[in-house]
Design goal:
It is a single chain. The protein is rod-shaped. It is mostly helical and 242 residues long. It starts with a helix and ends in a 9-residue tail after the last helix. Helices cover 77% and strands 0% of the residues. The longest helix is centred in the first third of the chain and has 46 residues, at 26-71.
Length: 242
């Protein structure tokens, strides 16, 4: 942010000193700069919304699967509590994987999928056909959401698009300042101040938009104000059925 402001001021006064004036179609250029920037912000925002919806579905499938298991004739409270705690471990691994950028716990999570299947299979003599189909379906959906969360983590807004936006943001003072200078009377101190203000403001707004995109790009890392609030979304011990 500071760099773009310093660059804007430096270019402004250099253009003023040498009476430099560019004749450019600013409408087309503005579209070339702003549209990709807005597109990248929209993409990051949509990723955040998808992440919220997917984790909420993951949470609901955990509860649904444990409820189905509890409702099976032949399973005890001890069996239910053990299975519930097993899914809490799965949830913790998923969250740790999402928060830690360097973590790669998907191998462990995928192994856990087999362990949960074998655990459920150990009670298959108690299932009727409807219960069996429901349990297998919900278990598969649970891990489908875990895989989708991983996909949302590893696939960000295209780097090439973000680099394109950043390059044009740093080039914007070279383009806009000449037109701003020509629009104001440099002999009028008030107009000079206003022209400098507008020049700095354009660079500030463009960089602020880029930073917004950066902050909401990863909704899992717990570094931004708008990240997923896992503390309020997780399944907790208080949700165990009596």
């Amino acid at each position: 942010m500071i760099v773009i402001i310093i660059e804007t001021l430096a270019v402004y006064f250099i253009y003023d000193k040498y009476q430099f004036n560019l004749q450019i179609d600013f409408t087309v250029l503005s579209i070339a700069i702003v549209f990709p920037l807005v597109f990248s912000i929209t993409s990051a925002y949509q990723k955040r919304q998808d992440s919220i919806a997917t984790f909420n579905s993951f949470r609901n499938k955990m509860i649904e699967l444990t409820n189905l298991f509890r409702a099976v004739d032949g399973t005890t409270n001890s069996d239910y509590n053990t299975f519930f705690k097993d899914l809490l471990v799965l949830q913790k691994n998923v969250i740790d994987h999402l928060i830690d950028q360097k973590s790669n716990r998907m191998i462990e999570i995928r192994k856990h999928r087999k362990e949960i299947f074998y655990h459920l299979e150990g009670f298959k003599k108690h299932y009727n056909e409807r219960e069996k189909d429901s349990i297998i379906r919900v278990k598969n959906e649970l891990f489908q959401y875990a895989e989708k969360l991983n996909t949302l983590k590893v696939h960000a807004t295209p780097i090439s698009l973000r680099m394109y936006c950043l390059i044009f943001i740093y080039l914007s003072p070279l383009v806009y300042n000449s037109n701003i200078l020509a629009s104001f009377d440099k002999n009028n101190f008030l107009e000079l101040g206003i022209s400098v203000f507008f020049s700095v403001m354009i660079g500030f707004i463009l960089m602020a938009l880029f930073n917004i995109q950066q902050y909401i790009e990863d909704p899992f890392d717990q570094e931004g104000f708008d990240d997923l609030k896992f503390d309020e979304m997780v399944v907790g011990d208080q949700e165990v059925l009596d």
